[in-house]
Amino acid sequence: MNITGANFIGFKSSAAGSSTFRAFAPAKDEYLPEAFTIATEKELQWAVNEAARAFQAYRALSYDRRAAFLDAIAREIMDLGNVLIERCSAETGLPVGRLTGERKRTCDQLQLFAKLLRDGWWVDARIDKAQPERQPLPAPDIRRMLVPLGPVAVFGAGNFPLAFSTAGGDTASALAAGCPVVVKSHPSHPGTNALVASAIIRAAQQTAMPEGIFSSLSLSHEQAIQLVQHPGIKAVGFTGSRRVGMALFHAAVTRAEPVPVYAEMSAVNPVILFEGALRTQKEKIAKGLSGSVTMGAGQFCTKPGLVIMKESNASKSFLEEFAKCINTVLPATMLSKAIYSAYSAGVTSWQNTAGITSLTTPEESSYEPYQAPPVACTVSGRIFLADKKFSDEVFGPATLIIHCKNEEELKNVLQSLEGQLTATIHATAEDEEDLKPVTDIIIQKAGRIIYGGYPTGVEVCHAMQHGGPFPSTTDARSTSVGTAAIYRFVRPVAYQDFPDHLLPEALQNANPLNILRLVDGNWTKDPVQQVEVNRGSGKDI
Predict the structure, then answer these.
(1) Quick check: 421 and 447 in contact, CB under 8 A?
(2) What is the mean pLDDT of residues 288-305?
(3) Does residue 486 lie in a domain region?
(4) Of these residues, 301, 325, 377, 404, which one is catalytic?
(5) Residues 68, 109: one domain?
(6) Domain, as residue range, for 61
(7) Residue 474 and residue 260: Cα distance in Å, rounded?
């Protein structure tokens, strides 16, 4: 497939703008040949207006029709074959094996949402039948379900060019919810975006979706703000830096009609190592932790950036083992020049601070361009608590190990942390007396708590929570991974005393969708027996 560099607006391509840019190949230290056109303000307006028009038709389609669309997207992405993987690897420096796995995750995610749509229970249908004989006043018939918000702006992520970008979790969950999507493509992998956007459009045409159901634009930062502030956009999905995420958040909440921004931003994902685990599982934890820190050049939002433990003979022995493990890991190419520069600045700031000890000994002369060496440093709890910079995320294969003098200092370190995506515990039965107060703290700090594992694997499933208190996300109640991600893009509507034939199928007496519903407080798929409703009494309770 040819990559033209145009924007995708509905089923059309458009390149009316005069400003262009090219993708950079970090592994080769060179720019790729295709020029990508920055959309004009007119094209931005066109894309959102098309999405608003498409919404009126798309929201009325059956869940089976939406599911067929998502399944078709997955097929079209797979049909891109090696062309997609090779282009994505060139633009990001990520290895083919990693991207092949990420493509499968992306398609599995789309298919999981398709199954969710067919199952139907996600609409959370609730029915409280009328009680005409209730005293002192009759109870009305009230039926509640979830409906789509409207067009969603999705911002592609730099570190996951497939699973968190054009056809990633935000797009999949928004489309499943019944919302058209306008993607702001990530400038680090525009060719990858073009290939995936074309696949989505082909799937939309094959399944007779309304034009405007999907668009993809290359935008400047100023235009990205304009996209969020467009009155046709009803929600925003974002994965990236805290700086950009907060800019989008402020743009959305200062609109005449504020809209939700679901931004996944920064986290250091603390790992707490207890004495019993350090003494009995030293080699296992050292190997697993070094692998988690350096996986994908440390460019995972769930990378364990802080390791916290009490100082002891066991902790000192663990540090020796961990240093051996992490020093065997080779440098890896980072996603972009900007990310590499930020990583270098972050670890240099650590290393130039008095009281910091480095466990890693990189050989800088052997690096290829934009390759980052793993870095592990140790610091006392006292020094950590005295300088906020140590709790800031350093994006890349680096971790800071905090040695606390006692249990109280360890808890103070945990209390000082901002909101996190994850927190991890390694402990044994002998540690359980100390475990509960630590668990009580991290429950308030993180969205996912791991026992005996590592945070860098984020399973796509019904129970996953990928989101936590600020600043890990802008809304701790939401997740960007798993089927619960759909709830970001819907809102509840209650129908009171409606005639059965005017209700949505999910709420009709016969339950034609055969979905699980909460009827008078009990979950059931059974039909509802009609109760005569006394409409229009106008009486208040």
Answers:
(1) yes
(2) 97
(3) no
(4) 301
(5) yes
(6) 7-265
(7) 9
Are residues 334 and 252 both part of a single domain?
no
Which tokens in the block code for residue 491? 């809102």
- Which amino acid, one-letter code, is at 275? E
Closest CA to 174 of 205, 149, 201, 144: 149
**222 lies in the same domain as 279:** no
Annotated catalytic, 418?
no
Per-residue pLDDT tens over the stretch 333-351 = 999 999 999 999 999 999 9
Higher pLDDT, 152 or 533: 152
Structural domain count of the chain? 2
Could you read off the pLDDT of 299-345 as tens digits, one per residue? 999 999 999 999 999 999 999 999 999 999 999 999 999 999 999 99
Does residue 400 sit within a domain? yes
Are the C-beta atoms of 421 and 387 separated by less than 8 Å? no
**Residue 102 bears catalytic tag:** no
Segments of 251-368 assigned E as strands: 261-264, 271-273, 306-310, 332-333, 357-358
The rounded distance, in Å, linking the Cα atoms of 143 and 59 is 19
User: What is the CATH classification number for the domain harbouring 203?
Assistant: 3.40.605.10
- How far is Cα 441 from Cα 420, in angstroms, rounded to an integer? 12
The residue among 426, 451, 476 that closes a domain is: 451
Query: What is the DSSP annotation of 406-466?
Result: SHHHHHHHHHH---EEEEEEE--GGGHHHHHHHHHHHHTTEEEEEESS-TT----SSS---
CA distance 251 to 442: 31
Residue where a domain stops, chosen among 265, 295, 310: 265
Contact status, residue 8 vs residue 187, Cβ threshold 8 Å: no
Out of 50, 264, 409, 418, the active site residue is: 264
